[in-house]
Amino acid sequence: MAHFHDNGSTHPASGPLANARIIDAAGHQAAIVSTQHVGTEEQAWIRIDGGAQVLVPVSLLAREDDGSFRLPFTFGSGAGDAAVQMSFPVMEEQMQVAKRTVDTGRGIRLHKTVAEREQVLDELLRRDELVVEHVPVGRVVPDAAVPQARYEGDTLVVPVLEEVLTVQKQLVLKEEVRITRRQHQVREPHSVMLRSEQVAVERFDEGQDRAPQ
Question: Which domains does the chain have, with CATH numbers?
Answer without folding.
Answer: 2-87 (2.30.30)
